[in-house]
Amino acid sequence: MKKKGSANLSIMMTDMQGYTALSSGSSRVEVIELIRRHNELMKPIIEFYGGHIIKTIGDAFLVVFDSATDAVVCGIVIQLLLNEYNSEQEEPDKRLLLRVVINTGDVMIEENDIYGTAVNITARMEGLECFPGGSIGISESTYLLINRNEIVVEDQGEKELKCIPYKIKVFKVPVEQQHITQIPIKLSKLVSKDLKGHTNKFDEIMEEINGKTGEFLNNSRRKTEDTLKKAKDDFSSIINEKKSMLRDELEKKKDEITDNIKKTSDDLKNKLNSKFTEFKDRFKR
């Protein structure tokens, strides 16, 4: 692909059906795994058929091809591979339903990105009900350029697309009716190699996450135990201090009471002695 200027290219856009709902109900690790699995399946096929990846956004790919036939065949092989992949998945959440749409036209190329009406038409085609997840849709401009002896299509008629001032005729490419019924052996080996590397890498990531989680839990447990021990020691120290203060207070009160009793006793004794003396003097008289 040229680095700058204009070119007539076949533009492929892909997106995963139900990705928004799936990602909102999944953990970050699960979403990362889903995207990685999707990317590892897609990239070898795109490169095998001469596609140039412009960018990826979450579950979506924007790709260009010099050949319209190569673009559509690439889309067919992507769906064949995903059908095979999905058949091996026991959990529904791990299955991938991909929508592939392709349009051909002039684009402006600037800093490894593409612009123009042809790009906008491709993006709007993704919203057509006739192209659900698991299907391939192409525009008339692509249909006119493909090898029709190699690719079977179904006419879907003219469709109105948002912000496009004229109707666009579109075609569906039914995967089950194609002459291509299996993935090329060479490509199959490439995908298997990438998936194996991806699986090993994911296992390493999960092992690292599990290790860090275990370390975090152990550290938290130790910190909690240390905090509880310190709180227990502090509480015991406070109790002992209060006991000591209470003991001192009781001793002080005891001394005061003893002094009061002695003083009262002395006063009473003095009064009695005084009365006795007074009575004794009266008796002498």
TrEMBL record:
Residues 240-267 form a coiled coil. One of its GO terms (molecular function) is adenylate cyclase activity. One of its GO terms (biological process) is intracellular signal transduction. SUPFAM superfamilies: Nucleotide cyclase. The keyword Metal-binding does not apply. PROSITE patterns: GUANYLATE_CYCLASE_2. SMART domains: CYCc. Residues 10-126 form the Guanylate cyclase domain. It comes from the Bacteria. Transmembrane segments: none annotated. InterPro entries: A/G_cyclase, Adenylyl/Guanylyl_Cyclase_3/4, Nucleotide_cyclase. Keywords: Coiled coil. The keyword Coiled coil applies. This is Guanylate cyclase domain-containing protein. It comes from Muiribacterium halophilum.
